């Protein structure tokens, strides 16, 4: 709490418990953020120490923060025992946040986190509608109650369609995901799920179908098979058939396949237009297309041509995307400044069946880079780190940077942005490392 801020000047201090804003009860941080939209605020608190109840009057000044940071409190966790739960497949010693089974509708609204909805009470549903918490993101997996109960580990509240119909009927927009488990919710079961969710109407915005992720740490867990190349082909045929039907029906494809399915099947990645604004980008739907566009931008950039990038630059990615990236880089050889080398990092921490760049550990990346030749710079995908610059194995980015000195390490969400940041680095003649987390 800054004393010079409007809140500090009004007398609020660290430790105060906010109970009401302009007469409205404040249950949690979400209530607070909605309540403080007014210009003049009367904030009632249970004061820190023994000060008791008091009311502070705060005037919100345009463009100036209030100076209040409220604690978010405990996350409402998911109590299901999903047979494919990725958290249950993690080894010890990773980032602490990775072990949280988030089932909190508030973060579904704020951050796009997926929830099953099985822990929503009548009070929660009423609050969602009253506050207009839209859109929300639901892990459906199957609209068949028996199949969904099996996937959720025997959950007694597995039937989801009445809840979704109720929310959509009251103006809440929804996005969905299906984690595809071969032999359980694929084939006809998947088709029923897709058509059932689309039938909810315009409030049902999009559906992502993603293959189940299986690590090497599954001892004692439900036996599951990975999605095969043949299974990916069959699933894509079904999704494309549904897309054609939905486009004529609602003007939108509605259902989208994760990039992994195209890569597993050896099929062509859809066009930029086919992703319709990329509503499921954070779910791995369209990331490859975005990266392909990034490489093209890098090749066509006159600014990069003049940047003097004439060194050797090693580009880190996962094993699934590496052949695609290598092909793109070779196609633009001579156009993209400098010499680019694709480094396909095997995921030894979680198992080599985990092939995406976003789940690479810092230790695996460092080992792969140390085994190869030295480079003038190393380009890392931003998806491999959290906002605090920590890899999933709890290795700080600074540790990796120190190990690779004096070559700079550049973190960026795409090749074009990485090369652009590298050109700035070269222009300044600095040896400092660069991180760029802003999306393309």
CATH superfamily of the largest domain: pyruvate-formate lyase- activating enzyme
Average pLDDT for all residues: 88
Shape: globular
Biggest β-sheet: count, sense, barrel? 5 strands, parallel
Low-confidence stretches: 430-440
Count of helix runs = 15
Helix percentage: 25-40%
User: Within the largest sheet, what's the order of strands?
Assistant: 10-9-11-12-13
Count of discrete domains? 3
- Please report the first level of CATH classification, the CATH class of the largest domain: Alpha Beta
Order of helices and strands: HEEHEEHHEHHEHEHEHHHEHEHEHEHE
By CATH, the topology of the largest domain is pyruvate-formate lyase- activating enzyme
Classify the secondary structure makeup into a structural class.
alpha/beta
The fraction of residues in strands falls at 15-25%
Amino- and carboxy-terminal Cα gap: 34 Å
């Amino acid at each position: 709490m800054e004393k010079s801020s409007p809140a500090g000047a009004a007398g609020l201090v660290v430790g105060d418990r906010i109970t009401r804003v302009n007469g409205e009860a404040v249950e949690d941080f979400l209530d607070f953020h909605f309540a403080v939209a007014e210009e003049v605020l009367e904030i009632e608190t249970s004061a820190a120490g023994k000060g008791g109840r008091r009311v502070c009057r705060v005037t919100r000044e345009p463009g100036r923060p209030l100076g209040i940071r409220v604690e978010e409190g405990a996350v409402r966790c998911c109590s299901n025992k999903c047979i494919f739960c990725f958290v249950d497949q993690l080894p010890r010693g990773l980032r602490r946040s990775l072990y949280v089974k988030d089932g909190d509708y508030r973060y579904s609204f704020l951050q796009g986190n997926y929830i099953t909805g099985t822990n929503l009470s009548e009070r929660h549903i009423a609050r969602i509608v009253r506050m207009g918490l839209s859109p929300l993101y639901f892990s459906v997996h199957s609209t068949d109650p028996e199949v969904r109960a099996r996937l959720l580990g025997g959950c007694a509240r597995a039937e989801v369609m009445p809840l979704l119909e109720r929310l959509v009927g009251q103006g809440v927009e929804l996005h969905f995901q299906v984690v595809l488990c071969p032999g359980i919710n694929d084939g006809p079961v998947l088709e029923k799920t897709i058509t059932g969710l689309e039938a909810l109407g315009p409030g049902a915005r999009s559906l992502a179908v993603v293959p189940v992720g299986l690590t090497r740490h599954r001892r004692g867990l439900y036996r599951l098979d990975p999605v095969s190349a043949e299974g990916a082909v069959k699933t894509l045929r079904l999704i494309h058939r549904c897309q054609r039907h939905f486009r004529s029906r609602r003007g939108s494809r509605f259902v989208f396949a994760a990039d992994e399915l195209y890569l597993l099947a050896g099929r062509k990645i859809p066009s930029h237009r086919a992703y319709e604004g990329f509503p499921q980008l954070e779910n791995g739907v369209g990331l490859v297309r975005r990266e392909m566009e990034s490489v093209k931008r890098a090749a066509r950039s006159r600014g990069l041509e003049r940047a003097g990038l004439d060194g050797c630059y090693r580009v880190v990615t996962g094993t699934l995307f590496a052949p695609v990236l290598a092909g793109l880089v070779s196609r633009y050889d001579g156009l993209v400044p400098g010499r680019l080398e694709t480094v396909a990092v095997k995921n030894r921490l979680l198992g080599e069946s985990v092939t995406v760049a976003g789940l690479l550990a810092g230790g695996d990346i460092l080992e792969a880079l140390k085994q190869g030749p030295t480079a003038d710079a190393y380009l890392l995908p931003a998806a491999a780190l959290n906002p605090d610059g920590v890899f999933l194995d709890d290795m700080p980015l600074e540790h990796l940077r120190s190990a690779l000195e004096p070559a700079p390490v550049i973190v960026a969400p795409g090749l074009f942005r990485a090369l652009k940041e590298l050109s700035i680095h070269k222009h300044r003649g600095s040896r400092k490392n660069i991180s760029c987390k802003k999306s393309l």
